Amino acid sequence: MTTDRRTDPARPVIVLFRHDLRLSDNRALTEAAATGKPVVAAFVRDDEAPGGRPIGGARRWWLHRSLEAFAHSLKSLGIPLVLRRGEMQAIVASLVEETGADMVVWNRRYDPHGIEADTAMKATLSAADVRCRSFEGFLLHEPWRLKTGSGGPYKVYTPFWRALLATGDPRPPLPAPTRLAAFAGKVTTENLADWNLLPMRPNWAEGLSAEWTPGEAGARRRLEDFLSDAIEGYSRQRDVPGLRSTSRLSPHLAHGEISPFQVWHAVRGLASWKEDSDKFLRELAWREFSWHLLFHFPGLPTENFNARFDAFEWRGDETSLRLWQKGLTGYPIVDAGMRELWRTGWMHNRVRMVAASFLVKHLLIDWREGERWFWDTLVDADPANNAASWQWVAGSGADAAPYFRVFNPVLQGEKFDPKGVYVRAFVPELAKLPDNRLHRPWEADAATLSSAGVKLGATYPVAVVDHQEARQRALAIYNATRGDE
DNA sequence: TTTTGAGTTGTTCGA
DNA sequence: GTCGAACAACTCAAA
């Protein structure tokens, strides 16, 4: 990969940005700075190119804001951000042509389309005698490096985690470059506004704006807040959706506004709260595991990891799918989660499991439908975590939940949101119900309902399925799927 | 090659 | 109310 080919110091180096919209701990950028060559910074978007998967609505909003922030940071170093979209290979070839660059650097991607596109790009560039260098930065461990004793990829999380720990601490993060040589020539850029990433009418992004600050500075602040406010007690409180007890770093990581190296070392460096920081680092390692799986099983977002599930007879019930999407299932914890997702572009992890399990096991709707909905609505949607987690819940995935594990939405609600802080925030029409009926409004007597202003079937839906019946149905079908093959 | 131990996140039932 | 067992086998990872 690395050649000894010399480059001409007067000719520029192109730095490609994709999922790494940050200045600090950005190896490609640091290496470019170290050459002393003039730098051309380009964000190239190929999700809409053939073979790509267009990013969803929530990520479009995020990307717009993140690019604004990133362009601003680069500008403070005297470098404009060039925006292009299309096929990676063609765009970069034309950038080389326009600028006379003799070197291109980037941080690696790990999704199947990204790998393919970058491989093709590299071949084109190398054939044209342009020096290429690619770097790590999105993942702590290159997915091809961690192997089981017999040389294969890991399919179970715990051995993966142990192997990850056994390789020692990942490299420390790099500081942001303090100076970059600007490229004197003119490079045309597309207009961010022309990408139409922001929703217009209706503007559903207000809730997203209220919750998130996309960009490197926002990511850093989120990490600092987490370290000062929430890491202590994380192992116990992370499951309580009514507390701000998780890091909420996922969308920042997905866009590369912060790197896993930065997160790892910030948390690893904490002297106290060992149990809590370990627990959190295990979560970070789940992200690694999902990408490891996607790398080795590129079909993960669309195909059952466990082929036995190909015979599973999902119900294609459009009506209940819509109710689930809108947060109108009649189960308060599920509805709160789905509405949090719609309003803020994010959902608490515990509630993701409950809501996902509900779609798959109570409604018997194909996990791919859920995956698609999350892809469109999550600001942190990525092909690895989203697919791996859905398959995990469905039981078709690697190291998956056993089929008989059917979350009871009432018990989950009462256990993790006992005071109803979460449900009341997102399902205000139930807010006046007492705690002991909040997660099971159908058991409230008429007086309680009426004094709370709740009329089932009118102000809040009647449950779309009965838990016990749905559970029995799921167990029967899952059971049948297991045997015959 | 064979064997062995283990495997994120739960629910329900009956003692 | 609390507690332990059953739920079911299967596959993975490593010795």
What does it look like?
With 485 residues, the chain is an alpha/beta fold. It contains 21 helices and six strands. The protein has helices spanning 27-35, 57-76, 88-99, 112-127, 157-166, 206-211, 216-230, 234-237, 250-254, 260-268, 274-296, 318-326, 332-344, 349-362, 367-377, 383-394, 409-416, 421-426, 435-438, 446-451, 467-483; strands at residues 13-17, 38-45, 81-85, 103-107, 131-135, 181-182. Strands 1, 2, 3, 4, 5 and 6 form a six-stranded parallel sheet that branches. β1 (13-17), α1 and β2 (38-45) form a beta-alpha-beta unit. The model has no long low-confidence stretch (mean pLDDT 94). The structure holds a DNA duplex (15 and 15 nucleotides).
Which descriptors apply to this entry?
485 residues; alpha/beta; six-stranded parallel β-sheet; 6 strands; DNA-binding
Strand percentage lies at 5-15%
Q: Radius of gyration over alpha carbons? A: 24 Å
Outline the low-pLDDT stretches. Answer: none
Helical run tally: 21
Helical residue percent band = 40-55%
Gap between N and C termini: 45 Å
Characterize the biggest β-sheet. 6 strands, parallel
Choose one word for the global shape.
Answer: globular
Overall pLDDT confidence: 94
> Secondary-structure element order, as H and E?
EHEHEHEHEHEHHHHHHHHHHHHHHHH
Total beta strands: 6
Alpha-beta classification: alpha/beta
